[in-house]
């Protein structure tokens, strides 16, 4: 039965992939730009107006790093939709929640109160890990979040950390795992109101539009264009997912990397430079008449 299910899934995936039309001119430009990276890269770009795509290793699995906070957001939104959590409800911080690092929430004293909406802001805007792990537990553990991802058609995107049965995956990919296509598809589904509800999707897009970390792919988009995004990085991985509400039609930009030789943390990191170049390429490609000229 498991083999039969796997065969059906592979057939369905093949049909879904073939149904997407490739933008061959953009495809060639993307392939030329990424070929010399010292590491592994996956790219998925989709014009939501035309449905055309360009992609490289779009179905390979990569670490999410902090992009896992998009699935955590979905888990919290699911709890709010069912009435188990309220957006403005007060939460009590405990020292046991601390995840050591430079996070804002970790500077709180045990017993201090903070609204759920502000914890969400810290997770998505400043990528606060203490806030994120707290919200993951409030969402009903990684297991519940993974059930929601599975119901949305995600076969590879999963929360691994602090999730029973996924220790081997955590050892390989860290906090979470995904593919460029699935992360892009997840963002598209949120935008189209196909995750939980239309109202929930609208709220999630608003929350994802307040990213403090805007020096990579977002930096190549005009400041007056709305962008919903989340990025993530660990030593050997730099990744980013964007929904760009371009005048000519919205597009998805999903880029993920792993096994990077350059593990520096400033903006000259090879993968980050490439991310900015890819983002600039997409903007110029989809908006050739724009007076805005990206820096790269």
Automatic annotation (TrEMBL):
The keyword ATP-binding does not apply. One of its GO terms (biological process) is beta-lactam antibiotic catabolic process. This is beta-lactamase. Keywords: Hydrolase, Signal. SUPFAM superfamilies: beta-lactamase/transpeptidase-like (SSF56601). It catalyses: a beta-lactam + H2O = a substituted beta-amino acid. The lineage of its organism: Bacteria, Pseudomonadati, Bacteroidota, Chitinophagia, Chitinophagales. InterPro entries: Beta-lactam/transpept-like, Beta-lactam_cat, Beta-lactam_class-A. It is an enzyme of class 3 (hydrolase). Residues 1-19 form the signal peptide. Belongs to the class-A beta-lactamase family. It comes from the Bacteria. PROSITE patterns: PROKAR_LIPOPROTEIN (PS51257). It holds the Pfam family Beta-lactamase2. Its EC number is 3.5.2.6. It comes from Niastella populi.
């Amino acid at each position: 039965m498991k083999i039969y299910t796997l065969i059906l899934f592979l057939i369905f995936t093949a049909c879904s992939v073939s149904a997407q039309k490739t933008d061959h001119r953009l495809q060639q430009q993307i392939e030329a730009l990424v070929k010399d990276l010292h590491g592994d890269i996956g790219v998925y770009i989709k014009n939501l107006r035309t449905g055309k795509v360009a992609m490289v290793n779009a179905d390979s699995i990569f670490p999410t790093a902090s992009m896992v906070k998009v699935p955590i957001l979905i888990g919290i939104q699911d709890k709010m939709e069912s009435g188990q959590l309220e957006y403005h409800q007060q939460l009590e911080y405990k020292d046991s929640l601390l995840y050591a690092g430079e996070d804002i929430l970790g500077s709180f004293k045990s017993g201090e109160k903070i609204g759920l909406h502000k914890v969400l802001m810290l997770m998505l805007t400043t990528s606060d890990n203490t806030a994120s792990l707290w919200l993951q537990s409030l969402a009903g553990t990684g297991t519940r979040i993974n059930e929601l991802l599975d119901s949305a058609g995600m076969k590879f995107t999963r929360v691994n950390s602090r999730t029973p049965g996924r220790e081997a995956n955590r050892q390989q990919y860290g906090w979470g795992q995904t593919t460029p296509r699935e992360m892009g598809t997840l963002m598209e589904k949120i935008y189209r109101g196909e995750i939980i509800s239309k109202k929930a999707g609208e709220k999630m897009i608003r929350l994802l539009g307040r990213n403090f970390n805007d020096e990579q792919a977002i930096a190549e988009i005009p400041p007056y264009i709305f962008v919903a995004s989340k990025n993530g990085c660990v030593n050997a991985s730099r990744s980013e997912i964007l929904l760009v509400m371009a005048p000519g039609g919205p597009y998805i930009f999903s880029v993920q990397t792993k096994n990077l030789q350059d593990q520096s943390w400033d903006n000259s990191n090879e993968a980050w430079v490439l991310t900015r170049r890819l983002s600039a390429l997409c903007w110029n490609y989809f908006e050739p008449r724009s007076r805005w000229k990206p820096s790269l």
